[in-house]
Amino acid sequence: MQPASLSSLLLLTVAYMSVYCIYKIYTVKKGETMHLQLSLGNPLPFYEQVEEQIKQKIITGELKAGESLPSIRTLARDLTTSVITIKRAYQELEGGGWIYTRPGLGTFVCAVDPEQIKREALSRIAEALRTALAEAEMGGLNPEQVLRLLEKMISERSRQ
User: Fold this and answer.
1) Number of neighbours of residue 45 by Cβ within 10 angstroms
2) Phi first, then psi: what are they for 6, rounded to 5°?
3) pTM listed for this prediction
4) Both 44 and 119 in a single domain?
5) Do 121 and 50 sit in the same domain of this protein?
6) Residue 50: what pLDDT?
7) Of 68, 86, 109, the domain-final residue
8) Angle, to 10 degrees, between the axis of helix 143-159 and the axis of helix 114-138?
9) Could you report the per-residue pLDDT of 91-124, keeping only the tens digit for each?
10) Which of 33, 34, 68, 86 could form a disulfide with 76 if both were Cys (CB 3.0 to 4.6 A apart)?
């Protein structure tokens, strides 16, 4: 096996006789890496997995404004997925104002507005709450019980 610093590292984790996850380390700049994970066990399509992970790296500052991203072809090859998959992820990111492309120069991270990060966080929280409410319903809990639980969690967190 070649060292990870010289080439991409592909690790297949096999569980229960089927491929569970594909982990990929992709070198963005010499000496730096961007970790992306594509999982066959994740219900999201691969393009959304790539999109969400790149968004997360921008939000956390792992990818900074103006930093270049790998080309569509390079990332598709390194993640062993279709060029169409990566192109769709980049289109979604560009449409959302997360990245921009300059023909002949490449794809770069946009300076992200703090309000955009708040909107993204609210969107994720809303989705998580929808899931939690569905789970509560299946468990026979009513909305008031869920609300009390959330208030208790907020109270405990504010004491920390």
Assistant:
1) 13
2) -95, -25
3) 0.65
4) no
5) no
6) 95
7) 109
8) 130
9) 999 999 999 999 999 999 999 888 888 888 898 8
10) 86
The set of long-range contacts for 80-84, using a CB threshold of 8 Å and a minimum separation of 24, is 80/10, 80/22, 80/24, 81/38, 81/46
Residue 66 lies in a domain: yes
How far is 67 from 107, CA to CA, in rounded Å?
A: 8
Residues 95 and 124 in one domain: no
**pLDDT class of 59 with cuts at 50, 70, 90:** confident
43, amino acid identity? P
Of 44, 47, 42, residue with least CA distance to 88: 47
Mark whether 82 and 125 lie in a shared domain. Answer: no
DSSP H helical segments within 61-142, as ranges? 72-78, 83-95, 114-138
Residue 157 is predicted with a pLDDT of 86
Please give the residue range of the domain that contains residue 152.
114-159
| Token code pair at residue 37 | 């994970």
Do residues 36 and 50 lie in contact, with contact meaning Cβ atoms separated by under 8 Å? yes
Residue 97 CB partners (closer than 8 Å, separation 6+): 110, 112, 113, 116
Number of compact structural domains in the chain: 2
Identify whether 1 is part of a domain: no
Whether 127 and 119 have beta carbons less than 8 Å apart is answered as: no
Residue 23 lies in a domain: yes
Is 71 among the domain residues? yes
